[in-house]
Structures are given as C-alpha cells and as structure tokens.
Predict the structure.
Amino acid sequence: DAKTTQPPSMDCAEGRAANLPCNHSTISGNEYVYWYRQIHSQGPQYIIHGLKNNETNEMASLIITEDRKSSTLILPHATLRDTAVYYCIVRRTLDDKIIFGKGTRLHILP
Amino acid sequence: GAVVSQHPSWVICKSGTSVKIECRSLDFQATTMFWYRQFPKQSLMLMATSNEGSKATYEQGVEKDKFLINHASLTLSTLTVTSAHPEDSSFYICSAPAGEGRETQYFGPGTRLLVL
C-alpha cells in the first residue's frame, strides 16, 4: 500500500488560502488520492479525490504533481469552520478499504 | 453526498455488558461497510469490513468474538461490543462506499462509548 506523509500541524489566517501538502512517493499508477477532514468529535467528511488531473469542487482544489508523488489540497478562502484534522489517503487497489494516517491538524487563526 | 447514520450517538454502560451500535446507509445500498475505532488524539483505526450476506473480515489484532458484526441488510450493519470493559471506551465510526463506481467512502457521525 502506498503511504502518505503530512505535516502534523499548520496554521492559516482566516480568509487566506490554506495549502495542505501530502507526499505519496510510492503511489501506484491506478491508486487515487483522497482527502478527508475530521472536525472535532465528528465522523470524517469527504472533500475531494483525484487520479492524475487537478480537481476542483465547491469545497477545495486538489493539485497532483505530474509524477503523482505528491499533492496539495487547497482551501481557497479558509474560515474558522475549516479548523479540523485533514487526512490525505491513497486508496488501496485491492478493495475499498481506507487506511488513515495521522493527518494534518489545521488551525485557522482569526 | 450520500448519508450514513449511526445509533446511538453516545452510550454509557457498565463493565461486562454488551453494547450494540447500528450503522445505516440512508439513501443508498451498501453491500460493504467498514467499522473504525478512534481513541482520543489518535487517528481512525480500521477494525473490520462488514459484508452483506457473509462473515465480516477483521483486521489483524481485532478480536472477532469481542466485536461482533452483522450485516443484516443492504442498508444496515451492526457492531456489538461484547462484555465491554473500560479499555473499550472509544469513538466508533462506520463508513460505506457510495457514488459512481463506489469511489467515495461516506462516514457516519460516530458513536461515543464510555464503559464504566
């Protein structure tokens, strides 16, 4: 399984873009990159996923490098409600399991 | 997105009793569901895969006789913590794949268990 590496914590000013990096240097060609976040005492919330191309939805943008060894989740205008632990996950190919790493604790500063 | 619910949202029980937690997919069918456990300040740990119509598959180190899983229908999976002890106190979360190609996992809100 490909594993991911994320910084343990990050700060971002409210209203600014939050850029969360993730390294997944051992990712296989058919494995997707998923991002979830977990707000305190809640279940994880799906944000976005991608394979090769950059993706954008109403919540965020996902930028995947050409070699697919790393990616960045971008929250374009962070608000206090975006304070959460963000998990970058590479989806296993053998089944639907999602294995969580330690994630990045994002603090949005007022 | 798809909606997954859990019941109860929290439960307190005495040591030695059994506790059942339900996980439901509200607007889609799920032949597979997943159960996770999360201790304070830690990440989610996958416990087992619940399979509709067949036995659950457990991750290494998870006691199948301790954590009984039943996938009774295409919208319901239950996790029973048998003979609960204080060390079983945790946040239990389920998920189910949905969407086109079942590409996305949707998570329930979690059940907080406190064993006294």
The CA atoms of residues 39 and 98 of chain A lie 18 Å apart. Chain A has a mean pLDDT of 93.
